[in-house]
Amino acid sequence: MPARTAPRPRLTPARTARPSSKAVGHAQALSRGLTLLESLAATDHGATLTELAASLKLPAPTAHRLLAALERSAFVRQDANGVWSIGVRAFRVGSAFLAQRDLAVEARPHLTRLMEQAGETANLAVMSDGEAVFIAQAPCRELLRMDVKLGARAPVHASGVGKAMLAALPERDLDAALPADLPRYTEHTLTTREALVAEIVASRRRGYAVDDEEHAVGLRCVAGAIHDEQGRPWAALSLAGPTSRFTRERIDALGALVRDTARELSLALGGEPPRPGNHAPAKAVR
Predict the structure, then answer these.
(1) Low-confidence ranges of the chain (pLDDT < 70)
(2) Cα–Cα 20 to 30 A to 256, which of 14, 27, 121, 142?
């Protein structure tokens, strides 16, 4: 008697559950509400219903319905003149983010990627007592490379990170932040106030600062400032390497790379970096 062939299992395509129209409506309302909050946060003194509806291209009744829901949860508030602004609960949420963020931890993947793209050592520094202090580093894989101990200090007038943070200061605060003394470290060090201010102006125009053997002979560096939520300099990222490899021909490309990475990190930390100018996109250059 011939053997019976077992029936083959049939594969039935899994049915993809479609979200209900109610769920879609809730998601759309949430998205619109968050966009509305962002729009209000971007204003200096709040906005009227008409202004918000126009800026978000929403019907006025829809914008009012969203605002009313947010007001009930204290995320927004309305004054006697009908102007809406950010409420105390939104402030608490934002404050929690600021309290929990960690500069060094958040910067680590950016430092590593910057080092891999450039082939040079990437550094993170902050300002302390009028000097730049290195707090993190991603060393490159070359035998000849920049090597700095964490906690080491550098003069702001003769370092890329220092000049980047000076250049990011508001004009009204720059004069007080400039060092009274500008000691010479190499023949390339800027030792006059006029020369330093001119270089700061150039750094603002480029979007990054340059240390061209100003602190140590044979070492070149480019750096970009990291901005906090008020647009002030919080820290700086840099790329540094020996002049034999970090040639002047590489300055523009590496400067653009560090500038763009510093901007990305600023945004990741909730900062307000300057609007990007008409700079060419950064490319990895080895």
Answers:
(1) 1-25, 94-101, 276-286
(2) 142
| H or E, element range at 77 | strand 76-78
Give the pLDDT of residue 45: 83
Q: Which domain covers residue 74, as residue numbers? A: 23-98
Q: Are residues 39 and 77 in the same domain?
A: yes
Bridge-based pairing of strands 76-78 and 233-242 is: unpaired
Predicted structure pTM score: 0.65
Residues in CB range of 202: below 8 A, 6 or more apart = none
Residues in a beta bridge with 236: 125, 225
For the chain, the maximum distance between any two Cα atoms, rounded to a whole number of angstroms, is 106
pLDDT score of 137:
92
Distance from C-alpha of 81 to C-alpha of 197, rounded to nearest angstrom:
46
The rounded distance, in Å, linking the Cα atoms of 74 and 62 is 18
The C-alpha atoms of residue 130 and residue 162 are separated, in whole angstroms, by 9
Question: Residues 94, 111: one domain?
Answer: no
The pair of structure tokens assigned to 172 is: 């009204």
Q: Is residue 6 domain-resident?
A: no
Q: Are residues 93 and 133 in the same domain?
A: no
Let me know: does 171 contact 162? Beta carbons within 8 Å: no
At 253, the amino acid letter reads A
What is the count of structural domains for the chain? 2
Contact 211, 154 (CB under 8 A): no
